[in-house]
Amino acid sequence: MKRNNFPDNATCPLCGGTIENGTTTRTISIETAILIVKDVPAGICDLCGEEWFMLDVSKQLDELADEMRAKGSQLEILPYPANRMAEVA
Ligand SMILES: [Zn+2]
């Protein structure tokens, strides 16, 4: 199973605050191109506001960046592909 969300009571490595699950918009620079992914599952610290991503989410973002690089586009705005997360690893 892929995991998008942080366990309950996860603590922020920076400040020790509590990480709350939510979504964010992630902007990724790829050389001269820009990829914007909306509704990315993230853990957001309730104290310092730092955003954290589970490994599977980071991998998914890397895949999207690779696809964009392969296409050669300069700007893409995509929703986070939730359907892919239904795949069982
Ligand atoms: Zn924090």
Account of the protein in words:
With 89 residues, this protein is an alpha+beta fold. A hairpin with a 5-residue loop joins strand 2 and strand 3. The chain is elongated, with a radius of gyration of 14 Å. It has a single domain, classed as Ubiquitin-like (UB roll), CATH 3.10.20. The chain starts with 18 loop residues before the first strand and ends in a 10-residue tail after the last strand. It has 1 helix and 4 strands; from the N terminus they run βββαβ. Strands 1, 2, 3 and 4 form a 4-stranded mixed sheet that branches. The mean pLDDT is 91. Helix content is 19%, strand content 36%. Zinc ion (ZN) binds next to loops. Zinc ion (ZN) is lined by residues 12, 14-15, 17, 45, 47-48, 50.
What are the main properties of this structure?
89 residues, alpha+beta, Ubiquitin-like (UB roll), four-stranded mixed β-sheet, elongated, binds zinc ion
What is the C-level CATH assignment?
Alpha Beta
Overall residue-averaged pLDDT value: 91
Please estimate the helix content: 10-25%
Main sheet summary: 4 strands, mixed
User: How many individual domains?
Assistant: 1
Bound molecules: zinc ion
Beta-strand percent range: 35-45%
User: Any low-confidence stretches, pLDDT <50, length ≥5?
Assistant: none
- The H-and-E topology, N to C, reads as EEEHE
Summarize this, please?
The protein is an alpha+beta fold. The chain contains 1 helix and 4 strands; from the N terminus they run βββαβ. Strands 1, 2, 3 and 4 form a 4-stranded mixed sheet that branches.
